[in-house]
UniProtKB/TrEMBL annotation:
It is an enzyme of class 3 (hydrolase). Residues 103-304 form the SRP54-type proteins GTP-binding domain. Residues 9-88 form the Signal recognition particle SRP54 helical bundle domain. It catalyses: GTP + H2O = GDP + phosphate + H(+). Pfam families: SRP54 (PF00448), SRP54_N (PF02881). This is Signal recognition particle receptor FtsY. GO terms for molecular function: GTP binding; GTPase activity; signal recognition particle binding. It comes from the Bacteria. Part of the signal recognition particle protein translocation system, which is composed of SRP and FtsY. SRP is a ribonucleoprotein composed of Ffh and a 4.5S RNA molecule. The gene is ftsY. It comes from Commensalibacter intestini. Residues 102-249 form the AAA+ ATPase domain. Belongs to the GTP-binding SRP family. FtsY subfamily.
Length: 322
């Protein structure tokens, strides 16, 4: 039986869940809630990359409502899932291209290795399956592997890929691609970019140039700037958001590789700190392993068995798959 996305998300987050669950059990085994246990709980949450603000909110909730009472690790999990869901719900916004733009220009940014190129391919397939005409630009012109990878995705999803010679000017390539996308009536134009953070000034200059040159043709482009983050980097993801926000106006986040990390809590820290929409999360290499971000599903998947409900859509999907 093919696993539904929620099952794959839970499976992907299992390392984070196991680490968190083990630590919660060690703190709470039907004991009275006192200052010592609250302090230990705060340490567990911060160690799981939840961030100090979320940890503090959970602690305050327990201090006000259950102090001096007996609590189990299950009650802590339920309360934690609700707190996580509360933090994530305002930023859980699926990416929706504007049908009036033709094309809706999406500039994809992120450091090398985050899965940026693969994410473009997955998104092109997703929207192509919905009947939209997509085009892709191999704007990371210095990495031959990135160009080749995007062309493979283009062949797979039936979307044109605009590429140039190795080391070609990415801004010029984006400009020509935008003109072509406009002429051919494309609905979405995805632009891949380089991500060499070790040379921040060069990256800043290149991204600024891509935007400046595209605006000579369409002064509103790009319409979305999506930052792709690798969940396995933990707290480094926060620094990456800071840097890219300095360079470009990041409009949304895509978080990949949640299936390979025990640091799933970083998603909550990002939401709390930046309030940038989280459009999608990835739990694997296949196209269907990238899906719209759901606060309830993520909270339940991260904390483990809780009484927090997941979306009815996923429940129906998984029953149909049985």
């Amino acid at each position: 039986m093919a696993l539904g996305f929620f099952s794959r998300l839970k499976e992907g987050l299992s390392r984070s869940t196991q680490k968190l669950g083990t630590n919660l059990t060690s703190v709470f085994t039907k004991r009275r809630l006192d200052e010592e246990s609250l302090e230990q709980l705060e340490e567990v949450l911060i160690a799981a990359d939840f961030g100090p603000e979320v940890a503090e909110n959970v602690i305050e909730t327990f201090r006000k409502t259950r102090f001096g009472a007996e609590v189990s690790d299950q009650e802590v999990k339920d309360a934690l899932a609700k707190e996580i869901s509360k933090v994530l719900t305002p930023v859980a916004l699926p990416f929706k291209p504007n049908p009036e733009l033709k094309p809706h220009v999406v500039l994809m940014v992120g450091v090398n290795g985050t899965g940026k190129t693969t994410t473009i391919g997955k998104m092109a397939k997703f929207f192509g399956d919905q009947g939209l005409k997509t085009m892709m630009v191999a704007g990371d012109t210095f990495r031959a592997a990135a160009v080749e990878q995007l062309q493979i995705w283009g062949d797979r999803v039936g979307a044109p890929v605009i590429s140039g010679k190795p080391g070609a000017d990415a801004a010029g390539l984006a400009f020509e691609a935008l003109k072509r996308a406009k002429n051919e009536g494309a609905d979405i134009l995805f632009i891949d970019t380089a991500g060499r953070l070790h040379n921040k000034s060069a990256l800043m200059e290149e991204l600024a140039k891509i935007i400046r040159v595209m605006r000579k043709f369409d002064e509103t482009a790009p319409h979305s700037v999506l930052l792709v983050l690798d969940a396995t980097t933990g707290q480094n993801a926060i620094e990456q958001v800071r840097i890219f926000k300095e360079i470009v106006d990041v409009s949304g986040l895509v978080i990949t590789k949640l299936d390979g990390t025990a640091r799933g809590g970083i998603v909550i820290a990002l939401a709390q700190q930046f309030q940038i929409p989280i459009h999608a999360v990835g739990v694997g290499e296949k196209a269907e392993d990238l899906r719209d971000f759901s606060a309830e599903e993520f909270a339940s998947g991260l904390v483990g068995d809780t009484n927090v409900e997941v979306s009815t859509t996923e429940v129906v999907e998984e029953k149909e798959a049985e």
